[in-house]
Each structure stands twice: as structure tokens, then as C-alpha cells.
Design goal:
single chain; mainly alpha; Four Helix Bundle (Hemerythrin (Met), subunit A)
Length: about 240
């Protein structure tokens, strides 16, 4: 393991996995143990399932899987094409979960408009739309590597920036959703401010904030210098690709 990762990077990757596991446990605990908070008592079982699915899909399916896709470039052994293929597949799964997670809100008993009035809902739509555009560009770029090599080199920094920005935006969107839901429940008196559910939701918010910082730090951390040899370094010009 030491030959593949440096000690700081290995520690970051391990910490990211532990943070993701903690977040997954907390969101499942909230969604399954405190599921009655997600919908009024008189609602149908189908409405309850859709309401519970929304946080699970958006946190575990969208945020955690997209975070793992970002980390693939740092931990997965093998060729560059293999890493890009796994990255693209994981991002595709995350996008599907994000779309389905938003779709569940369209089945609320109050209708579509009533579920898209808040800052959380607007940010969610923007985030998934940006993520979808990013994935589509990456998909087209992957299957047309030779034809647009120089364009890919120029676009890559923006692709990385928008990927990390969208991931961070997804976490912020989730935080606004947690705050909105918890404030609503506390205002109605359904949840105590110092109760167990409040502690779970606040812990989930802290876990997401910690996870996002670790993932982004691992993504931007420099690679080990000894793996970058002049024989394998690729230098791109405006017109062609040269190997030094």
C-alpha cells in the first residue's frame, strides 16, 4: 500500500471513507428511525416512501457516490482510461440518483409547485443540471479522445473546477435542506431542539461539511513526484501532442 500511496494521501482517503460511512449511517438512521417526521400522519404509505427516499438518494446516491468518483483518480490502480471509465460510471450512477431523488418530490401530495419554492429546491435543480451537463461533456469527451485532444487539454482545468464546485454546491444544498426541515419540525413542536432527532440531523450536517472538505483536499493534493518521470510526461502544443 505504501508503494501506491504516500502516507498523507492514504490518511486522507481513509478519513474520507470513514466520514462517508458516518454520513451514510446518520442519514439512514434519520430516514428510517425518525421517518414519521418526513410526512404528516394522515398521508399514504406511498407518500411516506417517496419522502424518505429523497434524503437517502440525494445524500448517499448523489453526494457520496459522486465524492467517490472524484477520489477514483487518486486511489484506483491501473491505466488512465480505466480510471476515467470508472469515474464516468460512478458519476452516471450519482446523476441517476440525483434525478430520481428530485423526481420523488414531484409526487408530493401538495403538487409540484409547492415543493419547489425554497432556496434549497432552487439550488438542487441548479446543482443536478450542472452535474448533468458535466457528465454529458465528460461522456462525449471520453468517446472522442483522439479528435479533440487539444480542446480537452484546454477544457480540463474548467472541467475539474466545475466538478469540484458542483460537488461543493451539492453539499451546501443538502445543508440548506437539513436546516429547512429541522427548523420546520422544531417550529411545529414535533422535534425538540435538544432531542435525539435534532442531534442526528445536526451531526449529519457536520459530517457532510467534514466529508466535503476531505474529498476536495484529497482531489487537489499534489501527486508524488517520483511517479512523474520525463519519459511518461505528455506535453501538449496547440497543434499536436508531443512526447518528451
Amino acid at each position: 500500500m505504501a508503494k501506491i500511496f504516500s502516507a498523507p494521501l492514504f490518511s486522507l482517503l481513509l478519513f474520507a471513507r470513514l466520514s462517508a460511512l458516518t454520513v451514510a449511517v446518520l442519514v439512514l438512521t434519520w430516514a428510517l428511525h425518525f421517518k414519521i417526521s418526513f410526512i404528516p400522519h394522515h398521508s399514504s404509505q406511498e407518500d411516506l416512501i417517496y419522502a424518505v427516499l429523497h434524503p437517502v438518494l440525494m445524500v448517499i446516491g448523489f453526494i457520496l457516490i459522486s465524492g467517490e468518483a472524484i477520489l477514483v483518480h487518486r486511489w484506483l490502480p491501473g491505466s488512465r482510461n480505466l480510471k476515467k471509465s470508472v469515474h464516468l460510471c460512478l458519476q452516471g450512477v450519482a446523476l441517476s440518483c440525483g434525478i430520481f431523488g428530485i423526481w420523488t418530490k414531484f409526487h408530493g401530495q401538495d403538487g409540484i409547485v409547492a415543493n419547489f419554492f425554497s432556496l434549497h429546491s432552487w439550488m438542487g435543480l441548479i446543482c443536478v443540471s450542472l452535474f448533468g451537463a458535466q457528465w454529458l461533456i465528460g461522456f462525449l469527451s471520453f468517446w472522442h479522445r483522439g479528435e479533440i485532444r487539444t480542446i480537452r487539454v484546454r477544457v480540463l482545468p474548467w472541467h475539474v473546477f466545475l466538478g469540484l464546485y458542483t460537488y461543493g454546491l451539492a453539499v451546501v444544498t443538502a445543508e440548506t435542506g437539513l436546516l429547512e426541515k429541522l427548523t420546520f419540525l422544531q417550529a411545529k413542536g414535533d422535534v425538540l431542539k435538544r432531542g435525539t432527532e435534532s442531534m442526528v440531523v445536526n451531526g449529519l450536517g457536520l459530517g457532510l461539511a467534514l466529508l466535503s472538505g476531505v474529498v476536495i483536499l484529497a482531489a487537489v493534493s499534489p501527486k508524488r513526484a517520483k511517479h512523474q518521470t520525463p519519459q511518461t510526461k505528455i506535453i501538449y502544443s496547440n497543434n499536436k501532442c508531443l512526447t518528451s
